[in-house]
Every structure is written in C-alpha cells, then in structure tokens.
Amino acid sequence: MKIKILLAALLIWNLCTSSFGFNNASANNTIRIGLKRRTLDIHSIKAARIYAKHHHKDLNMNLGALRDEIVYVKNYMDVQYFAEIGIGSPPQHFAVVFDTASSNLWVPSSKCIFSIACYLRSKYRSRLSITYTKIGNPSKIPFGTRSVRGLFSQDNVKVGSSVINQQVFTEVTREGFFTFLSARYDGVLGLGFQDVAAERVTPVWYNMLLQRIVTQPIFSLWLNQDPKSRLGGEILFGGVDSTHFRGQHTYVPVAQNGYWEIEIGDVVIGNNSTGLCKGGCPAIVDTGTSFLAGPTTILTQINHAIGAEGFVSMECKTVFSNYGNMIWENLVSGLQPERICHRIGICTRNGTFDVSHVEEKMVARSSKLEKLPNDESGLCSFCEMTVFWMQVELRKETTKEKAFEYVNQLCEKLPDPRGKSYINCDVFSLPHITITIGNKPFPLSPDQYVIRVEDNHDTRCLSGFTALDVHPRRPLWVLGDVFLRAYHTVFDFGNLQLGFAESD
Questions:
Q1: What pTM did the predictor assign?
Q2: Which residues are known to be catalytic?
Q3: 205-211-212 Cα angle (round to 5)
Q4: How many Å apart are CA 269 and CA 281, to the nearest integer?
Q5: Extents of the domains making up the chain
Q6: For the segment 411-459, what is each residue's pLDDT rounded down to a tens digit?
C-alpha cells in the first residue's frame, strides 16, 4: 500500500510540474554509479554467511489471519562490489555496498569508540557538517546472527553527482569485533523496500524519487564479467543502458513482502530436471552476496553433477540403507511422497519437512562439536530428502540399482553450511545449471558459476552455489552475483517487477 501511495504521489507531481512548466529535474534524470570490485579471498569466502528464517505474521488480530514471511540477513563478508558516497556538507566519503536485500543506509560514527573495527574505516562526524540534523533515536539493524547498533541522524547524502536532502541514516556506534575487522567497506546503502527498513525509515531510493532527482521509478544493474577491467560494474538510477545487455528483458512480478523477491521455476542440471521448483519457488535477488544459494536437496544434486567436494552424512546413509527399499516400494505403489516417511515410521507427522535439522547436524560436526544424537526430527529430514531424490530418478525411469547408487553418492555430497565446496578448475566438462524464470531458461555456464580465488599464490576453484535451508514447503533461493554477472537486471519499482537479459 505504501508503494502505491508513493507512486501515486509521483504521478500527481509529474502532472502538476509539467502543467505549470517548473519541472526542476535534470535533463538526464539519471544517476550513474560506477562500481569498484575487490578480489575475493579464501578467508572472506569461508567467513561469509547468509541466514533466513521462516515465520508467520499476524495480519488481523481479531480474525487470526496469518501470512508466511521470510526474514533474510547476511554478514556481507563475501561482498565484491561497492562504490563511494558522501554524507554531510561538505561531503564525508564512505565506501558502501549497494544492497538490494536491505533498506537502511548505515555508516560508522565518530561516536563508535569501543569497537576496534570502527578505527579501521571512515567515520561520520556530525560536527563537521552544516546540514546535520540530530534525531538521536536508537537504531538496531540485523547483521548476520547479530546486529549493528547506533543512532538515527539526518543529513544530505551525495550519490554520484546528485544530493539527496535530509536523508535519515544510522550512525553505527557499535560494530562486531571479528565481523568488521577484515571488511573492506564502510557501510551499506540498502535498495530494498521500506517495509523491511529498521523503524520504517524512508530509504535513499525512495527519496531519489520523492525529491525528483530521478523521474523514472527504475534502476538497473550491470556487473562486468571481465575480471581484468578496472570498472567492476554499474548501477543506473532512473534508467537502463542498452549497451550493457543483449536481446530483450524477461520481466516477472515482485512478491510484495519487502524484498526484491520473484518466483523461479524448475532448476535444471545439464538436461536433467531437479523437479523441486516446477510449481514455483521464491528467490531473492541480492546484490550484496557473491554466491547463488538454494536448498540442500538441490545443492546436493548440483555438487554431485559438478564434482564438488561434499559432506559425508552417516545419518543420510543410515536412513538410506535401512529404509531405501521401503521408500522405493512406496513410491512405485503410487503413495504420495510427502506421506512416505510418516508411513514407514520415521516422521511423526505427515509432511514434517524440517531440513533445518540437517543443517544443524552438519554445522555441529563440521565445527568438531560433540556429535548430535540421531533424533527423530533429523532422521525425518534425511528421509524426506531421500524420498525426493528417488522420486526424481523414478520419473526418469532409472533402474532401481542405478537410483540406489545415485542416492548413496548424494549422501556423500551434502553441502557443508559452514564452508564452500572446492571443485576442479578444469571446467570444460561441467554441465550448465539452468534456472527457469518467467517460463524462460536462464543458463549459467561453468565459467560463470565457478569462482576462482588466489590462495598463497595458487589459484583455487570453488562452486558458486551454497546451501540455504529455511522451510522445505517454501524453499528459498538467493540470486547473488554469480547470477547477476551473467544477466543484466532491471529493478522496476514503478511496475513492481524485475527484468533479466543476457549481459554484454
């Protein structure tokens, strides 16, 4: 509703200003931001984390109506792209991440005196700005499993050559010690929706429109695929640069839940359908992470197909060896897949579907913690993944022997949630991974999804895919830079849609 009110106000303003002849927008009406790119290193990649939680939100306290919501956060450790902005008059300069999966602007404050990390980066000094307005209300912004804390302030913000007047932002006064010590940026400029902004403050992008700095309610992103180029990419506020893409954009609607979230279809490995998202899966388009994240069930299949290192799960092998025949027989007999694990006695309820226990177990073991017990809920999760994998093979009319061999191999390829998977740098034999968007295939070649990093003067290769488990009835994907480098993206705020075209 807030978005519709904002767009209606912009339309009325356009009509009024054009009628009276005092349109004060610049002739170009766009802001072009060149992005710098940093080289990823092993430390940053290993430290990178993304998190998502699924919960119900009350829509009507009297009727008890609920809506499923996803809360998505990360720690930005694998960020590659950033640009400089200015805050204050005269402008104080900060390197910030332009992040489509958050909505606040925040930078370190000169009042941040008890966090060592604050001494290693630029800090905002309100006393040096003649346009500073004190607000002083406390601010808390989610950051990984924790948060950054500070105070709301108001000042002019310079983005490119344009100035947004009296933008509310957060002066961060407390930063996590280990979180920020190795970060190569100062703060974050969120390009998400106001619904997910801390204290619902008006985001920078909204004020660009309200203050008529740009007139077209769109912005577009291009990431340079040439690793040797000095220009990492470009964000164009208020327009689209036709030199950065080939063909036409495919547009799909945005789910109105605060994120740039779309629905994707089937994910295909080579020529083989994975099947999980044929009925649709949500995907957040995120410029603030380098990887492409998805559910363990599919990431395990991708790991197997591209020869990535995996995590051997004895719990998975135990479920498969003890119940594999029963699962196969139930699938062949036509029993609904979501009822099988309940019927054979592993899950207590029909369709429990809670693979978060899988991630919990793998995290514990990969951290060399005490082994978790084989609790029923964990075994249930492995059972449901086994059912899914067998169902995929059954649809391909694979023999029982080959299907069993395949599932046993998958139990050795589970993605480790506390790390990334190494693969052979010889990518020529690897399959394309294709994501369906708007009923159109968007393939990623091995060169596009394999990430090369320098490690002690040696080049190592990692899979560009990482696991993210939220709620298997609504498996979430995150389309990060691995995808966005391959496809020029238009964020159409006016029509609440996203457009993708092949990058040039």
A1: 0.85
A2: 99, 286
A3: 90
A4: 17
A5: 314-354+362-410
A6: 988 887 666 788 888 888 899 999 999 999 999 999 999 988 877 777 8
